[in-house]
Amino acid sequence: MVDATKNTVITTTWGTTNARPVQPAVVAKVIKKAKRPLLITGGDVLDEDILKRAVEIGKKGIQIAATGNSMTGFVDEESVFAKYINAHSLALYLSDSGWKGLDGHGNYDLIVALGHKKYYINQVLSGVRNFTKLKSISIERNYIQNATMSFGKLNKETHLKALDELIDNL
Amino acid sequence: MSQIKTGKFSIDELENVQITIGSVVGALEQEMDSEELDIGPSPCPGIKDLRNWDFNLLSRYEPVYTPVCDQCCYCTFGKCDLSKNKEGACGIDMSSHQAREFLLRVITGAAAHSAHGRHLLHYLIEKYGPDHPIDVGASNLKTPIIQLVTGMKPETIGDLQKALEYVEEQLTQLLATIQVGQEGAALDFESKALHGGMIDHVGMEVSDVAQISCLGMPKAEENTGYAELGMGCIDSEKPMVLTIGHNVSAVTHIMDYIGDHGLEDEVELGGLCCTSIDMSRYKSEGAHDSKSKVIGPIAKELKFIRSGVPDVIVVDEQCVRADVLREAKELHMPVIATNEKIMYGLRDRSDDDVEDIVSDLVSGKEPGALLLDFDKVGEVATRVAMEVAPIRSENNMTALPSDDEFNELINSCVHCQLCENTCPTNLPISDAFRLAEEGDMSGLVDLHDPCVGCGKCETVCPKDIPILNTIEKSSQQAIREEKGKIRVGRGQISDPEIREEGVNLVLGTTPGIVAMVGCSNYAEGTQDIYKIADEMLQRNYIVVVSGCAAMDLGMYKNKDGETLYEKYPGKFTKGNLLNVGSCVSNSHIASTAIKVAAIFAQRKISGNYEEVADYIMNRIGATGLAWGAYSQKASAIASGCNRLGIPVIVGPHGSKYRRALIGRPYAEDKWNVYDARNGDVIPIASVPEFLLTTAGTVEEVMPMIAKNCIRPSDNNMGRMIKLTHYIELSKKYLGVLPEDWHNFVRSEQDLPLAKRDELLNILEKEHGWEIDWDKKKIISGPSMKFDVSVQPTNLERLCKGQEV
């Protein structure tokens, strides 16, 4: 078992709350419990090792909101539901109960972030945290304070192992 | 009774008597009442006067808040935790506080530009007199923004003071609303932020028009000269004067001193940030190449100082690091402060003898001097550089480590990753050090360009490694190769250019204007800007640049060894690349859209803000891109564009501005306009989709630009061209046909010619549209129809039959 909660060093704070460090198995449990989870990927997901794992998560039936240019990684993956969307627009739509979602079937009850620039996803999740009741989980290499739960700051090897463990438990 | 005018008068009967009348009370108002200027409904608008227009915009483009801090610490009731949109002790909630925070950024930026303008005006009026005429080149509409906002039509630099007085009053009123116990509604703070943005553009225009008129800068020239660009273009063997900041007034005296004393070949003069851009414009009128060099934006400040190359540093205002004096002192690099805004605690030597000042600086008795007498600045800076250079050279004054020191530093890293956690860009510093330990410097070299040069990594390193210095040490070859070219800033777009191009812009046959502005806080590095500009230029967009973006895209060359400035001409027409100038020259970008409304569409300009903004939003396909925005000034510039209906995209760091203005394309009731011919409400496509938003990557931003240049007024040819680029860019950079492309189709003639059959097929199969395949016509499906004479407007009062 990987310890994905190490090194949750905080250099600056947004406020009184910070993401709860979380282990991969717990993330898997929370995702499984959610009715409409959404994986939000950023441009850094295009790293070959990370992309492979994002596709695996997608294959488990979780929709993918492909932000940045991450959509290019899912174009040929027919068994994965992925659509391009701008991350900032998504933050607005997630706060709107009237949004029909990427598939036209309604909004989401859990978001999971992977492959983003640390400072960018932190800002997007700051909006989500303050203006919606949505839960968010970061499975990034970095500790993302504005998520509800997050992995710690991991080296690449540990990160990949953590993602594998998450996928195995999904 | 004869009219009293401003100016100097002599009385014949009295010898040696001259009366100077600086300003006549009510003269401007009288002029505005005259028949010559047909004034619209909102000259010199106060905070409330354009509120309806703002609310119109804000009803479609909703504020999206992404707080940087959940707390408010404005007053002694607090601090208050506002997270989850809670109210604080004063009753303000998170939304309103974030809107207030955004407003504060905007007016801070606006104040920086306007105070710059005020300082320049003081200086130029004293030197050239208030009656010095405004001359910006081939333009009857010399000050489009001032005229649009205030209704004034200044003719002399003295007249600009009235416009600036208006700006200063508005800024004071806006600043007052930040105080605790004032505004409580987020939406009204947003309206105020848009007001602040508009005011910012007036301040910028005052600044640039004044300096263009007086300092021999190019006046709406298509083919200006070039300036050498980059850290590698500096001859480190010569004494070097480094200037940093945005206000060129003091620096012109250094340039004159060097010129007057024939020292051009003896002394190297280069600058960082917008001062360097304006140095390159100084006396460059008539396609002359620049006499000074442009080193780069703020990201290069610490790097260049620590290289040890400069011998003296002259600072003025804005974008100057707070630690310049501390850093320079370490390297016996005297600092001359020339502006009250940055004085670094230095002794005021303005009234001292030049010999004494030079002596104290060369000997190191004092680390620098505050010098507000610009003639002395010219002489002191040049002489100190020449005298201190051999001393510094002899002592090898550089912060960069020797080879032995470098190896020791590399091996002392414990890979705690605190540097990476602290780095604003989260660069992989630890991995780069690990590679360096094995003798591979490529990781460190790769950090040189994306590193913003803030030095924060060093402040947290438990081993006190000067991390930036190790990056720069290993990147010496790359730095030597940093040699580019920048086209000297041209100022305004001329009236003849607008006459020629206006129709193409409004009908869409020129696919759009991309205004690339802002600083160097990029997502991946300076090449981002080059890539975007090159792609859009190849597609015939007009690319207009300014400030640091103008510098950074000149750093790169294609396989033929050309920079984009050498590859693409500089006229205001499709497929051209225009550098308007420095930060305050951004006003010329917004003023171009105003000129299209005035010259091409014959819209009344003076005091007619709402109507002109409405025209721009519905007809002119322009998108701003501040990819590396970092300062408050960028938020002010963006807000000024937004109030004019021009959308702006910022890079991922721009999310830290705390708020975006984004529309919801799926909310159909938001995407309607009036047809001014009859007042009918007609649906439009959801563009511009936002007024201010972020993009995550360069690849994402390109189709975003193309899409958000689409406008309701596009004719079939224009829409076809724009849609072609949107579809192609989406396929090229995101790998897919855009989800929403069909929303922009009004008839089969809007479809890209080469893909018409393929797209008609998709429309039929995936969207249920009815197609007549014999005629290849769309029978039913589009939510809107194309009508060549439709007059889209968001303002009901402009519709026929409505009271105006």
List keywords for this structure.
heterodimer, A: about 170 residues, alpha/beta, Rossmann fold, seven-stranded parallel beta sheet, globular, B: about 800 residues, Helicase, Ruva Protein, domain 3, 4 domains, eight-stranded mixed beta sheet, six-stranded parallel beta sheet, 29 helices, about 40% helix, about 10% strand, DHS-like_NAD/FAD-binding_dom (chain A), methanogenesis (chain A)
What does this structure look like?
The complex is a heterodimer of chains A (170) and B (804). With 170 residues, chain A is of the alpha/beta class. Chain A has a single domain, classed as TPP-binding domain (Rossmann fold). Helix content of chain A is 34%, strand content 15%. Chain A is built from 5 helices and 7 strands. Chain A has a 7-stranded parallel β-sheet with strand order 1-7-6-5-2-3-4, with helices on both faces. The model of chain A has no long low-confidence stretch (mean pLDDT 96). With 804 residues, chain B is α/β, with parallel strands linked by helices. Helix content of chain B is 41%, strand content 12%. Chain B contains 29 helices and 25 strands. In chain B, the strands form 7 sheets. Chain B has an 8-stranded mixed β-sheet, sandwiched between helices. In chain B, 57% of the residues are buried. At the A-B interface, helix 3 and helix 4 of A face strand 3, helix 14, strand 22 and helix 27 of B.
Topology at a glance:
The complex is a heterodimer of chains A (170) and B (804).
Chain A: E1 20-21, H1 24-33, E2 37-41, H2 48-59, E3 63-66, E4 82-84, H3 87-94, E5 110-114, H4 118-131, E6 135-138, E7 149-150, H5 156-169
Parallel strand pairs in A: 1-7, 2-3, 2-5, 3-4, 5-6, 6-7
Helix pairs in contact in A: 1-5, 2-5, 3-4
Chain B: E1 7-10, E2 18-21, H1 27-33, H2 51-60, E3 62-65, E4 71-72, E5 80-81, H3 94-128, H4 144-150, H5 160-176, H6 186-214, E6 226-229, E7 240-244, H7 249-260, E8 268-272, H8 274-281, E9 293-296, H9 301-307, E10 312-315, H10 324-330, E11 335-337, H11 354-363, E12 368-370, H12 374-394, H13 403-411, H14 418-422, H15 429-437, H16 442-448, H17 456-460, H18 467-474, H19 476-480, E13 484-487, H20 495-507, E14 513-516, H21 527-538, E15 542-546, H22 547-552, H23 564-567, E16 577-581, H24 586-600, H25 609-619, E17 622-626, H26 632-643, E18 648-650, E19 659-662, E20 672-675, E21 680-683, E22 690-694, H27 698-707, H28 716-733, H29 756-767, E23 770-772, E24 777-780, E25 792-793
Helix pairs in contact in B: 2-6, 3-5, 3-6, 3-26, 5-6, 6-24, 6-26, 7-12, 11-12, 15-16, 16-18, 20-24, 21-27, 24-25, 27-28
Pathway (chain A): One-carbon metabolism; methanogenesis from acetate
Protein name (chain A): Acetyl-CoA decarbonylase/synthase complex subunit epsilon
GO biological process, one term (chain A): methanogenesis, from acetate
